Structures
1.
Amino acid sequence: MTSSSALVFICAATSCLWNSVAVSADVEIVDLSHAYANEGMTFYPHPNIAHFNITKSYKKTSNIGVYWDMNNFCLGEHVGTHIDAPLHSIPGGRGVHELRLDELIGDAVIIDISAKAAMDVDYECTIADIRSWEEKHGVIPPKSIFFLRTDWSKYWGNDVKYLGTDTGKHENLHLPGLHPDAAKFLINDRQIKLYGADAISIDVGPSKHKEVHVTLLGADIGALENLANLDKLPATGSKVFAIPMKIKDGSGAPTRVFAMIGAGNTCYLSFSLVCITLLNAVMTFVWNST
C-alpha cells in the first residue's frame, strides 16, 4: 500500500467511524458516574482514604494571547465512582492495570431491590431475589455485568443517609448490599464478569468480614462502587463501559462508567471498534513506511 492510498483509506475509515456515531441517534447514553468535586461528595469513613481535593495550579493568558488553565488534584483509589481490583482484598491479586478491557465492557443486567432496601436499610439481595428476577427476564447470561440497584445513589452527598450513620466510623455503616451466598451463586452458577452497586460498598453495612468483597475479588472479578443513575437503565438491554484510571499495581481506581441503551448499541460498538482497529493498523503502516 502506498502512502497516498493509505491516506485515502485513513480518510475513508475516519468517515466510517464518524458515520457510525452519526447513525446512532437511536442509542441513549447514560452516565453512571458521580462527579468529583471539593464539595458534595461522600467518602468511606476510613482514616487512610484521602478525600478528593482539586486546587488551581495555573491560570494565565500568555504574552502572545494564549490562555491556559490547569489544576492539580489528589484522591484515594477508593473514592467516588471507582473499581475495586482483586488486589484490594486478595494478597497477590491482580491490580487495576492488569484488568482487561473486555472484562470491563459488556451487556448488563440490573436487579432492582430498591423497594426492599427502603423497608430495610441493611437488606441483602438473595439467591431467591435473583431467581425471581430471572422468572421475568430470563436466566442471566454468562459473562454479564451484574448491577445491583438499591437507589442509594439518591443520597450521594448526604453523609448520614448514604452511610447510614452520623458517627463517622465504618464499623457503624448501614446500607443494603449483596448476600455472600448470592455472590457465590453469581460466580459459580451465572459466571458474571463484573459486579457493581450504587452504594459506597458492595457489602451490607453491618458486614464485619466483608464476605462479598472477599468472594467476588477472590474469584478474580472486579467490583464497582458508588454508581449513579441505575434507575435509568432497563433490566436488560444495555451495554456498559467501565473505564478505570490505569494505575500500575492499583488496588482500585476512579472509573468513568456509562451505558448505551438501544437496539443498535451492539452493531454500533462492533462497527466502531472495527473502524478504529483498521485505522490504527493503517496509520501504523504509514508510520513505519516513512
2.
Amino acid sequence: MVESQPKHTAGNFRTDKDNPADHTEKDKGLFYTIPHKIVDDILKEGLHSMYKQQIKAFTEACVMVREPALEIMSCLKKANYSLPPVKYLIYGENGSGKTMTLAHVLHYCAVEKWMLVHVPWPAFWNLFTTEMSASVWKPGRVDFPLAADSWLKHFRQQNRALLEQLQLKTSQKYVWTKRESLQPGEPLTEVIEHGISRNKFSSDCVGVVLKEIRQQAATKGFKAVMVVDGINAFWGPTRVRLIPKKYLHVGNISLVHNFKKMLQPDWTNGAIVASVDQMAHPPAQRKNYTPKYLLGKWGFETFDPFVPVFVDKYSKKEINRCIDYYIDRKWIQTENGQTLEGRKELIFLSNMNPFQLYQACASW
C-alpha cells in the first residue's frame, strides 16, 4: 500500500486592505483584490494578456503586495513636489513582476487622484505600427494616427473623473488648419476630442495634452505621473520602414518625441515611474536586463538621474503564498500539487520566477 504524501497547510495569503495607499510592510507577500472597475478603467490596457485570462479564470483580479511597489509608493508619499519629477526605474528578469509592480503603483496613483499619463507598451509602436503619415506640424517627423487616437481614448478613460473635476483649460491658441483652431481658455477635453475625431491631428493633440499637463500640474494643484512599461523602447530600434531597406529612427516618431518631453526637468508636481524590459527590443538585443544595457548610452544619459528599483524572483514566503493562492483558485487541482513534495517540484520547475510558476501550475 502506497502512503499518501502529506499536504501543505495553507496559511493566510490575503490582506484585507484593498486600498494600495494603506499597504505597508505588514502586507508584504499577501494578495490584495483590485475592484473590476479599476481593472476596466485604469489597468486593463497595461496588463499582460495571460493575466487578463487569469482574471477570467479566477473570477477576480489579485496582485501580491511586494517590496518594489511598496518602495515606490513610500517614495511618492514623501517626495518634494516643488522640485522636478523624480524618476523611478523598475528592472529585473523576464517574468519577475515588473508589469504587476507598475499596475500596483498605477492603482495607488489613481486612488490618490493623480493625473495618469500611462503608456502601456511603446515597443508596439516601434515594432508593429503600419499606419503612419508625415507630421503636419514638424517636417521629418512621422505620425502614427491610430496609435495616437488609441492613447487619447485611453487617457480620457483613465482620467475621466479627474478631468471633470479639474475643468482644465488651454493656456494658449492652437491652430490646426486655417479654418480649425482652439482659443485660449477652451476645455482641454476639446483637444482630446479633436484628436479622436480628426486622426490627422491626433499625434499633435497628444503633444498639446502633455504640454498642458506639464504647465498646469503646479499651477492648478494636481499631481501627474507618467507610467511607462518598457521605456527603453523610446531609444530602441524600429521595424518601421519609410522606404525599402531604411528603418525609421525612433526619435522621429512624433509620439515618442512628445512623451520624452515629460522626462525633462522643466516642470513640477509630478513623477515618472517606468520599467525597462528585454521584450521591448528585438531578440538580438535581449542579452541583459540591466538599465544601462537596455537604455543604451543615449537613453541612460537622458533618463539619469533615477531611483533604480529591482524586482527580484519570489522569496520563499512569497512563492509558498502564491501556491496557496493558486490552490484556492483551483489553478492547481491535482492531489500531488497540494503535497509538500509537489510544492517543492513546482518551486524547482519555476526557479522562483512568478511567470514561470504560473505556467508550471497550469498542468497541475
